[in-house]
Prior knowledge:
By secondary structure, this protein is of the alpha+beta class.
Amino acid sequence: MNQRLGVHLANYVSALIFLIYPISQALHPTYLIDGIADWTAIGLYVLCAYFFLERKKKYQLAMWILLILSISYFVYFIDPGCILFYFFPVSILSYNLNQKIISKYGVLLIGSFILNFLIIKLNHLTVGYTLLPFIVLAGVMLLSNDFFAKQNRLQQELNDKDRELAVMAGQLERNRISEDLHDSLGQLFSTLSVKSELAEKLVDYDAAMAKVEIKEINDLVKSSLFSVRSIVDNIQQTTVAEELKQSQALLSDAGIEFDYHLASIDIKEERMNELVMLIRELTNNVIKHSKAAHVYCELAEQDHLISLVYRDDGVGLSHSSMALKSISRRVQQLYGVVKYNDMEPGLEVYIEMEK
C-alpha cells in the first residue's frame, strides 16, 4: 500500500463499507448471470474508488461514469437503499476531483441521483420516503463541500497572486539595484580605466601631471565608495531622518556645511525608500560636482503632496546637468515633478510628488 493510499485509508474504508450488502447478495445469486453481473458491478465500484482516492487524472471522466453506473446497478438490481452509495461521489467531487457542482462531473452526479431517486419513489413509495432524510443530507453535504472547496480555491488564488507579487517585487528590486549600480559605478569605472592608462603613460615624462591624474583617481575611488555605501544602505532600509543625518556626516567629512528641516510626514514605505534614494543621489551630486560650501534641505507635506527642496551654493546648473538626469528619471517614474533653479551661485532642486 503506497503512501497516498495510506493517507486516504479512512475515506477508502468508508467507500467500501457499504459493499457488505451487495457482496452478501452476490454470494447467493438466483441465476449465474446475476452473480456475474453483481460481481462485475462490485469490482467496478472498488476499482473506481481506488482510482479516485489515488487522485489519478488520466481517464478520470470515464471512471466517473463507471462509478455512477455501478451505483445505479446496485440501486436497480440489488436494493433501492444502495442509493446511499452516492455519499462517496458526493464526498470526493469537490476535493479529490477539484470539480464544481456546475460541471460535467456535477451534472452527471446530480442527474443520475435524481433519476434513481424518482425511480425508487415510483416503484417503492415507502422506501422513497424513508430515504428522503439521507437524500437531504447528501444534498447539504454536496453544497457545503462545494462552498468550502470554492473558498479554498479562492484562498489558493490569493496565495498564488501574493507569491507572484513577491516575485515581481523582487525582480523590480533587482532591476532598481542594477540601475543604481549602472548609474553610480558604470561611468565611474570607465573613467578610472581611462585615467589610470593616462597616468601610466605620463609617469615617465611628466611626473607632475601623472600625480594630478592619480589624485583624481583617488578622489573617484572615494566617490565610488560613497556610491556603494548608498546602494547597500538602501537595501538595508533607511528612514528619511536617518538618511539626512548620514548625509550631514558625509558632507561634513567633505568640508560642506549641511542644514536641514524635516517636517513630520506620514508616507508609505515605498515612498520613504524613494525619498531616501533621491536625497542620497542629491548629496552624492553635491560632493562630486557642486564645489559648494553650504547645503540646505527641506522636506514638507501639504495635503496629499510631498515637497523636497535641496539647495547648495556651488557652481550651479552647468557643471551638474548630466548628473541630474538620473534624478529626473527617478522622479518621472514616481509621476512627480522636478524643477532646477540656477541660483547663481548655486543650484536649487525642487521635487514634488504624491504621498
